[in-house]
Amino acid sequence: MTTKGSKAKGKQRSPAKATGRTREATKPDAGKNETKPDLGAVRAQIDGIDRQIQDLIKQRANWAQQVGKAKGKLAAAVDYYRPEREAQVLRRVVDRNDGPLNDEVLVRLFREIMSACLAQQEPLKIGFLGPEGTHSQQAVYKHFGHSIHGLPLASIEEVFQEVEAGHADFGVVPVENSTQGTIQSTLDMFLTSGLRICGEVELRVHQHLLSRAGRLEDIERVYAHPQSFAQCKAWLRQYLPKAEKIPVSSNADGAKRARNADDAAAIAGISAATVYGLKSLAGPIEDRPDNTTRFLVLGRELFPPSGNDRTSLLVFIKDQPGALYHVLAPFAKHGLSMNRIESRPGHTGLWQYAFFIDIAGHAQEEAMHRALAEVADFAQEVKVLGSYPVAIS
């Protein structure tokens, strides 16, 4: 059983990388006597492959339409979307990949193909913490592709509300950062919301100092979300120790304000520079190079297993000795690993607490089903917030 702070992701380094040798350095000294390829012939080969790729994409789009017909007449685009199926497709892309393009590039390409094919029915409407240019918007595109209709909203609470009301098909909200911990406002919304978690996104967050001015020494005040200030505090202390730090609701909101004066700057992702016409004076400026934010995808229903899933629970415990032990013991008993646990005031009474728990596995799997039944015997209330595919790194 692991705790939140002990999560480790990514592929193991190869022996060549571990010893500092590059892949090129290990190749034999070949190619000295090779004939120089004819540029025109190479380009002709590429053009032919491009035609084949385009034809195959057309075929895939046509078959995607057949999937829609096989499902029959459904109410809206959201009824055609299946996150577990997309996760399975993308995992196969990673499993098949043997280069030269890396996994991230190929996953992004296939994500966009699937996004475009699904949008033939109708583009999904995705709510996110706005305005445009936020990391939340980047997380939307990473998970759903660009063939969607994005709905930038003013707050995390509004994202929940728009999905609950059916004005958005899904919502994307931040839930935790690898260096600054949990976004408490997101967890608190689950105490009263009936929405389900149906996906997660892990986004490597790179912060930049953006301004319409061209010189760092001109900056007298900096706008940013409090989380971003915390992620960049060492850099700010070294390079802008006297600048005023002004917290705002989102980094994109800070970028909007910074574009109005030469002595102002904002901390935001590089995409905000394009949206708001700013220059990057420095970046990346986050204190940790592995700075990553995890986002949750909000929906209105649970989806079937994908084969590599996570289940998020909200558990209200009874006030008795060993209560938390009795809640967690069934997961260990049935061989289920706990990925994360977080406590929050339960809003059910003074000094009453609820626990948010992430467990490896899907609620429909037999081991999880048995464990949850045992947990219910000791807990005051157990709520399955969602079972969803683990983020594809």
Automatic annotation (TrEMBL):
Its main location: cytoplasm. SMART domains: CM_2. Gene3D superfamilies: 3.30.70.260, Chorismate mutase, Periplasmic binding protein-like II. Pathway: Amino-acid biosynthesis; L-phenylalanine biosynthesis; phenylpyruvate from prephenate: step 1/1; Metabolic intermediate biosynthesis; prephenate biosynthesis; prephenate from chorismate: step 1/1. It comes from the Bacteria. Catalyzes the Claisen rearrangement of chorismate to prephenate and the decarboxylation/dehydration of prephenate to phenylpyruvate. This is Bifunctional chorismate mutase/prephenate dehydratase.
